[in-house]
Amino acid sequence: MKFKTLALAAMMAVAAPSFAAVQVAGDIGQAEYVFVATNAAGSYFQDLGATTGFIETNWGKTFSQAVAGTEWNKFLAFGGTNTTWAIIAAQPLGDGFAPGEINAWTTRNVNQALGTIQNSQSNDGTSNLAVSFLTADAKSSPKVADNRLASAFGTSAYFDNGTLSFNGFFNARNAVGTQASMVYLTSSNEISDLPSQFTVLNSTASFNGSTVTITTAVPEPSTYAMLAAGLAAVGFVARRRKSA
Asked: How far is residue 125's CA from residue 183's CA, in Å, rounded to a whole number?
């Protein structure tokens, strides 16, 4: 718990700039997706500006955003190879283990099994990612709606494989050109070493080297009730947190 507490404190400290920072707080559904590409020479960060709620409620739609620009060119100039990428939204809303308190919506590696990351691992990895996103956002210049930053290996805003793998316990990265499924992670209960709760999302993501794409499918009729029940449960947790 000590790491998570420190991470949340640091997150609040770097959230001070008045520009429109990447959203990692607010109500459930307001967290924004971030795209990160990384290799041994450097990393590239881009605030996609699309919230988890927007993506998951626009069924049958495709959201795409290009990476071309000054910062992407800087990233390419670092000269790294074997680039991998991930799309993640991190939203720590508390410091406990109740479902819905610490949340991540993330791509997963094509070989990453589900149900293997534990509650404490998911919580600490998500909190660490939120800090890293805000750190990169704060260092980006100029400040625009979709802030971007290229960071060389070894600098404070560089994203290594461990950060993008929830401290090594859940691999969110894939090779360029690979389509990735997306999942929602949150604690399943108050027991730190039990498996974290996961939900396979109604969306897939891809990166072809120039464009980031998230595509949602139209759910089967039988899944609507299940989706509604899940949203109601998360909303209940959020209301309980506010009234505490």
From this structure: 15
Largest distance between two CA atoms of the chain: 51
- Would you say 120 and 192 are in contact if contact means Cβ atoms under 8 Å apart? yes
Task: Report the chain's terminal Cα–Cα distance, integer Å.
Answer: 20
Residue 156 CB neighbours (<10 A) = 9
Q: What is the dihedral of CA 233, 237, 243, 244, to 10 degrees?
A: 150
Instruction: Report the alpha-carbon distance of residue 168 to residue 164 in Å, rounded.
Output: 8
Whether residue 160 is predicted with pLDDT greater than 90 in this model: the reply is yes
Give the DSSP letter of residue 118: B
Q: For residue range 33-84, list pLDDT tens digits in order.
A: 999 999 999 999 999 999 999 998 888 899 999 999 999 999 999 999 999 9
CA dist 229 and 232 (Å) reads: 5
Q: What are phi and psi of 2, to 5 degrees?
A: -65, -45
| pLDDT, tens digit (0-9, with 9 covering 90-100), for 86-103 | 999 999 998 778 889 999
| Residue 221, pLDDT above cutoff 80 | no
Residue 64 CB partners (closer than 8 Å, separation 6+):
211, 212, 213, 214
Among residues 161, 88, 173, 159, which one has the least CA distance to residue 126? 88
Contact residues for 143 (Cβ-Cβ < 8 A; gap 6+): 17, 19, 20
Type of residue found at 49: G
DSSP alpha helices (H): ranges in the chain? Answer: 2-14, 52-57, 70-77, 119-139, 224-243
Q: What is the 8-class DSSP label of residue 145?
A: T
With H, G, I as helix, E, B as strand and everything else as coil, classify residue 11. Answer: helix
- To which H or E segment does residue 180 belong? strand 179-186
